[in-house]
Amino acid sequence: MKKKMIAGNWKMNGDVATALDIIAGITDAANQSQHDVVIAPPFVYLSLAAEKILSSKIQLGAQNLADQEVGAYTGEISAKMLADVGCQYVLVGHSERRQLYGETDLLVAQKTILALENGLVPILCVGETLEERESNQWKDVITTQLLSVVDHCGIDAFKNIIVAYEPVWAIGTGKSASADIANEVHEFIYYTLSCKSDNIRPSLKVLYGGSVTAENSAQYMSQEYIDGVLVGGASLKPSVFSEIIRSVE
Ligand code: 13P
């Protein structure tokens, strides 16, 4: 059976005390899980988190990375630095980066390449806005976002890329996509990538993100094409995130 993934994106929240509290509060659930449990704290807490999770099964991810390798890029953090402090994963192309910081498909592809070159597993976020869903453009939007990375990295790179479907209208809104809608989009993502290569399917993982809670996580996890969840707000509450981890069979 394919391992599932439960990932928590803390976004720009918390402080040292919160970080320690979350890690301590989810360690038991993570250690008892058969699946991959990942936290993505803000950059400044990554080293601390890396130290604290050493004797647990929790894995570490970052929320973003620079689109350059090294040099005079004030304020940026490179893929190599993330690997150096113990990250195994990095979110790429989160809708908040695309919408608030103008990240284009090309930039997202460049970051994906750098992540892969430095041994990180990119968690490539894709998803449509409410307007795009209502005008039935979601397939086009997701195809463009995926194929940009396929064009720049090659389809085989998807053996080491995790895809996260995060409908923009469901992020932080409390209005989650129904399990049926999410599963339909995930099936479409599987289909789109499988059309490029039949080897992709067995290793592909597609996570759902957008207002995941302890109440709805099991519904997502039981869907055929949903291989895990990417949790925002609920990942800041250790007891809730632990429940989400435990909701995966
Ligand atoms: P919420 O779970 O807060 O809706 O955020 C989802 C998300 O953006 C995870 O990356």
TrEMBL record:
<dbReference type="Pfam" id="PF00121">
    <property type="entry name" value="TIM"/>
</dbReference>
<feature type="binding site">
    <location>
        <begin position="232"/>
        <end position="233"/>
    </location>
    <ligand>
        <name>substrate</name>
    </ligand>
</feature>
<protein>
    <recommendedName>
        <fullName>Triosephosphate isomerase</fullName>
        <ecNumber>5.3.1.1</ecNumber>
    </recommendedName>
</protein>
<keyword id="KW-0324">Glycolysis</keyword>
<feature type="active site" description="Electrophile">
    <location>
        <position position="94"/>
    </location>
</feature>
<keyword id="KW-0963">Cytoplasm</keyword>
<feature type="binding site">
    <location>
        <position position="172"/>
    </location>
    <ligand>
        <name>substrate</name>
    </ligand>
</feature>
<dbReference type="InterPro" id="IPR020861">
    <property type="entry name" value="Triosephosphate_isomerase_AS"/>
</dbReference>
<comment type="similarity">
    <text>Belongs to the triosephosphate isomerase family.</text>
</comment>
<dbReference type="InterPro" id="IPR022896">
    <property type="entry name" value="TrioseP_Isoase_bac/euk"/>
</dbReference>
<dbReference type="InterPro" id="IPR000652">
    <property type="entry name" value="Triosephosphate_isomerase"/>
</dbReference>
<keyword id="KW-0312">Gluconeogenesis</keyword>
<comment type="pathway">
    <text>Carbohydrate metabolism; erythritol degradation.</text>
</comment>
<dbReference type="GO" id="GO:0016853">
    <property type="term" value="F:isomerase activity"/>
</dbReference>
<comment type="subunit">
    <text>Homodimer.</text>
</comment>
<keyword id="KW-0413">Isomerase</keyword>
<feature type="active site" description="Proton acceptor">
    <location>
        <position position="166"/>
    </location>
</feature>
<dbReference type="InterPro" id="IPR013785">
    <property type="entry name" value="Aldolase_TIM"/>
</dbReference>
<feature type="binding site">
    <location>
        <position position="211"/>
    </location>
    <ligand>
        <name>substrate</name>
    </ligand>
</feature>
<feature type="binding site">
    <location>
        <begin position="9"/>
        <end position="11"/>
    </location>
    <ligand>
        <name>substrate</name>
    </ligand>
</feature>
<comment type="function">
    <text>Involved in the gluconeogenesis. Catalyzes stereospecifically the conversion of dihydroxyacetone phosphate (DHAP) to D-glyceraldehyde-3-phosphate (G3P).</text>
</comment>
<dbReference type="InterPro" id="IPR035990">
    <property type="entry name" value="TIM_sf"/>
</dbReference>
<comment type="pathway">
    <text>Carbohydrate degradation; glycolysis; D-glyceraldehyde 3-phosphate from glycerone phosphate: step 1/1.</text>
</comment>
